[in-house]
């Protein structure tokens, strides 16, 4: 008595009259029902994010090219859609407005609604819903379930049902009441019952008037549907899983009427259903009152409580019932009406009807693609005559379960117009009509849902326009994917905003007049073959390109993550001419073998080959004479001001602090603001100047500053000022001196032999620098305390020597027996983490490593590789003010140039910090073998002379110790 389907509508806002076992009661005829739960209108052409189905399409396209035959893209198959890949590199999607297939144990299978008796019950052969009909002999009518644990069973209230007669998707139970047949129908996603009332006497039968069908829900609770129907809300999900809409009835005014079709131009008429607790009595006048007693009623009469759902498929709107929604065929036989039906043809109400039809399709497969061909196909099953009339197809805004005549969707664009008439007689049998959709080819790829509306010309007066269409319309779309919008991934000699991703509305800078551009792109439809990149360079303000590609001159890219370069000296027009300084646009577009064109990428850039002049340096007042007698090496901070050259905007300044005897060379043009590399630090100006804090690193110190522009040009000097060549970089420089040095280390710190436990007091030095092979500890009356680690032991102190977060100097004489990685001198916290470590790196170079509080380590290495069995003096420093680590290594009585690295501030010492000789941490094994003497760790930046004193002192009273 009630037709249920899987409910895909939004859940209702309240649970009302929830009944576990209920009686369905037929209410009075109504024409104002709103249909399924309302949903807000949505545009059929709207922005939608593309799905990630590119990979399976590419695989299928590749297989199609190899086989020469179409290949199904299985990953894109749905209940309503199939997609085929063609050998020519295109894809074709065929989408239906209603389900045409379903998943089964064997994969996708076509829906087959033909009924069969399996000996227990009657079922359709292949249906998405779990639909089962009774075999007769008891009161069971049907069960419908969603295969997810929710179902509703219906029982006949007047004894046993007769055995059904099966025909296709219909099971007819004859004479369930005198003159009344029960016809149960299996649908694609529904099942329903139609009462075939054969005579007026049968319609008047009190049992028919008072008919109640008992409902039992499993996994759900029954409640009144807000639009005059019944809903089954899942007890586990809280949402409506199965629903039944209002009922509908029609008579046999036309000769081809049956239980599934009002026939001819016939229309159906809706009425409300009722729901009440079992045993509480009647709440409506029954079927007879629902139908009423209109004049001219023709028998048999059909009464069908139909269903609703919110699947995106089809509906029509009717001016005679302007507030009624016929979503997915509710209150109808599932056909779509169109045109004008005069009052004379409406034998029940005698009113004029104007109807328009709408179909919706899942178009997500072609989202973002290029439409090569598209066609809308629909079957005209009945026309009022064989005289053709005009029907126009439009792409429209979206429809919803609340769409009615009063809120029809707006038209967006006409697709096609056809004049036809089919289905009236043998002279013009039912036929499929196709409408070309290419008029909207640019709009259709922008949305994952297409809505097509059908409109008849003269649909407010011409009865020849009345037509009825099948609900199973289809669209066939041939499409391809254009290559991805290309990216600029590199520009030669570029310093700033060097890719299209980093530019993002800004302009890049290159310091060459002959730039070369690297671009990348790909194509989903990989079997299209290689893609071509078309590029040009145009100067701002000019209409013609300076460089461009003519026919036959593109760059070919692989369709799978291809990359290619083009520019100065490349094949093309004008590419042998350098670009004068100025602002330019580089444009690139990709084209595949189908002729599909990607989006264009425009990358703007400056050509700037002129280096900036030398910047101006202003010293602080303390150094107005170039000397600060009160200044202390490594301790006194001086604020210098750097100003960009007059009239020349720069990106930033690079500076280096060295002793007066060292030349740091030229900085790296690729440096960025507030970064450091080797001896160089880059700072960026606030407006046209900036300040920096600098400390002397020796008695005599030099500050050098270069200007760096956005193109990466470094300040340079003229040929006359730079005799070695016009391209030599030039820095502004200031030399200054200070009068004081840090206190030299004099205080001894005892160390303990970790093997023997014997104490070794401060190590006295006072002999010439060691050189040559070292087979034994140095023999000298001034240096009796050498430490040999060849015996397998190490030494440690009773506490910290320095605060590593402040400036310090670490040095040692060492003669390693090998050049593998090892630690000679370390200060380690209580967790075993080295705060500082002096020793041999993995490459055999002497190195100082510091550790920041974050755990990040910074290392500076000497330039040469240590020599096994050879004495070397290693001296390293951390300079807090200049943010530098420096190291120098000497063998003999001469010192190498400092090697400098930018440094992160090391962490301060905590409780339990100790100094270790010969190993990195308290729990680590001895890592150094060889000889060491006179290790020094002092909280100061020592000058070159002080360092010299450490290794050439002949004063026996000078004591150098761990400090």
From TrEMBL:
Example of a GO biological process term: carbohydrate metabolic process
Pfam families for the chain: Laminin_G_3
Signal peptide: none
Record has Metal-binding as a keyword: no
Record keywords: Plasmid
The protein's name in its UniProt record: LamG-like jellyroll fold domain-containing protein
Organism name: Sinomonas atrocyanea
């Amino acid at each position: 008595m009630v037709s249920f389907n899987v409910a895909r509508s939004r859940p209702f806002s309240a649970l009302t009259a929830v009944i576990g076992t209920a009686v369905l009661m037929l209410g009075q005829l109504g024409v104002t029902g709103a249909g399924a739960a309302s949903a807000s209108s949505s545009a059929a052409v709207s922005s939608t994010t593309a799905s990630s189905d590119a990979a399976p399409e590419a695989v299928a396209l590749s297989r199609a090219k190899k086989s020469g035959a179409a290949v199904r893209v299985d990953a894109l198959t749905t209940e309503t859609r199939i997609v085929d890949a063609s050998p020519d590199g295109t894809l074709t999607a065929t989408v239906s407005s209603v389900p045409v297939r379903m998943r089964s144990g064997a994969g996708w299978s076509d829906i087959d609604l033909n009924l069969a008796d399996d000996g227990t019950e009657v079922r359709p052969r292949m249906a998405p819903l779990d639909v089962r009909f009774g075999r007769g002999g008891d009161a069971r009518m049907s069960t419908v379930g969603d295969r997810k644990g929710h179902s509703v069973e219906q029982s006949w209230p007047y004894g046993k049902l007769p055995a059904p007669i099966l025909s296709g998707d219909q099971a007819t139970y004859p004479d369930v009441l005198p003159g009344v047949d029960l016809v149960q129908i299996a649908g694609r996603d529904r099942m329903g019952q139609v009462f075939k009332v054969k005579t007026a006497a049968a319609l008047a039968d009190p049992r028919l008037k008072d008919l109640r069908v008992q409902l039992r829900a499993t996994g759900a609770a029954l409640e009144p549907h807000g639009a005059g129907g019944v809903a089954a809300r899942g007890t586990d999900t809280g949402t409506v899983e199965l629903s039944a809409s209002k009922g509908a009835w029609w008579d046999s005014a036309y000769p081809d009427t049956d239980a599934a079709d009002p026939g001819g131009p016939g229309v159906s008429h809706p009425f409300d259903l009722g729901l009440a607790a079992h045993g509480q009595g009647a709440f409506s006048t029954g079927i007879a009152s629902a139908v009423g007693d209109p004049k001219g009623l023709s028998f048999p009469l059909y009464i069908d409580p139909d269903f609703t759902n919110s699947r995106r498929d089809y509906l029509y709107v009717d001016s005679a019932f302007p507030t009624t929604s016929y979503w997915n065929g509710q209150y109808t036989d599932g056909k779509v009406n169109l045109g004008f039906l005069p009052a004379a043809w409406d034998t029940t109400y005698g009113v004029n009807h104007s109807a328009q039809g709408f179909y919706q399709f899942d178009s997500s497969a072609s989202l973002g693609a290029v439409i090569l061909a598209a066609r809308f196909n629909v079957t005209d099953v009945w026309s009022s005559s064989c005289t053709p009339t005009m029907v126009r197809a439009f792409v429209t805004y979206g429809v919803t379960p609340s769409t009615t005549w009063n809120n029809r969707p707006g038209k967006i664009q006409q697709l096609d117009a056809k004049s036809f008439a089919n289905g009236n007689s043998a002279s013009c049998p039912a036929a499929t009509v196709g409408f070309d959709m290419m008029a909207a080819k640019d709009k259709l790829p922008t949305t994952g849902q297409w809505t097509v509306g059908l409109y008849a010309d003269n649909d407010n007066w011409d009865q020849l326009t009345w037509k009825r269409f099948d609900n199973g319309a289809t669209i066939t779309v041939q499409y391809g994917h254009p290559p991805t919008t290309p990216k600029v991934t590199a520009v030669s000699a570029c310093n700033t905003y060097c890719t299209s991703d980093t530019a993002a509305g800004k302009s890049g800078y290159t310091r060459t007049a002959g730039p070369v551009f690297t671009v990348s792109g790909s194509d989903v439809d990989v079997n299209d073959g290689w893609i071509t990149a078309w590029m040009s360079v145009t100067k701002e303000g000019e209409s013609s390109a300076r460089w461009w590609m003519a026919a036959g001159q593109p760059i070919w890219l692989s369709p799978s993550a291809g990359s290619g370069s083009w520019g100065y000296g490349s094949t093309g027009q004008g590419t042998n001419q350098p670009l004068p300084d100025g602002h330019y646009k580089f444009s690139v577009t990709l084209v595949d073998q189908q002729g599909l064109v990607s989006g264009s990428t425009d990358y703007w850039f400056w050509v700037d080959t002129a280096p900036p002049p030398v910047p101006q340096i202003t010293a602080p007042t303390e150094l107005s004479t170039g000397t600060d007698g009160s200044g202390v090496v490594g301790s006194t901070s001086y604020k210098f001001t750097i100003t960009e050259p007059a009239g020349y905007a720069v990106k930033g300044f690079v500076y280096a602090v060295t002793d007066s005897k060292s030349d740091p060379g030229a900085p790296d043009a690729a440096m960025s603001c507030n970064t450091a590399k080797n001896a160089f630090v880059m700072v960026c100006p606030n407006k046209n100047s900036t300040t920096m804090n600098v400390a002397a690193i020796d008695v005599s110190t030099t500050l050098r500053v270069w200007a760096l522009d956005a193109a990466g040009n470094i300040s340079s000097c003229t040929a006359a000022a730079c005799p070695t060549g016009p391209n030599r970089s030039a820095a502004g420089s200031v030399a200054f001196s200070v009068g004081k040095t840090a206190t030299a280390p004099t205080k001894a710190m005892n160390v303990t032999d970790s093997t023997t436990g014997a104490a070794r007091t401060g190590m006295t030095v006072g002999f010439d620098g060691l050189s040559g092979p070292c087979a034994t500890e140095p023999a000298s009356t001034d240096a009796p305390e050498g430490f040999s680690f060849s015996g397998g032991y190490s030494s440690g102190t009773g506490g910290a020597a320095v605060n590593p977060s402040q400036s310090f100097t670490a040095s040692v004489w060492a003669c390693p027996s090998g050049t593998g990685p090892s630690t000679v001198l370390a200060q380690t916290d209580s967790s075993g983490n080295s705060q500082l470590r002096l020793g041999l790196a993995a490459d055999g170079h002497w190195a100082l490593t510091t550790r920041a509080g974050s755990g990040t380590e910074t290392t500076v290495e000497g330039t040469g590789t240590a020599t096994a069995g050879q004495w070397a003096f290693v001296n390293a420093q951390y300079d807090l003010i200049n943010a530098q680590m420096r190291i120098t290594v000497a063998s003999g009585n001469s010192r190498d140039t400092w090697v400098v690295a930018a440094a992160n501030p090391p962490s301060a010492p905590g409780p339990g910090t100790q100094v270790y000789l010969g190993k990195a941490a308290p729990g680590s094994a001895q890592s150094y073998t060889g000889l060491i003497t006179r290790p020094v760790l002092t909280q100061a930046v020592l000058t070159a002379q002080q360092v010299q004193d450490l290794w050439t002192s002949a004063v026996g009273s000078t004591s150098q110790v761990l400090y």
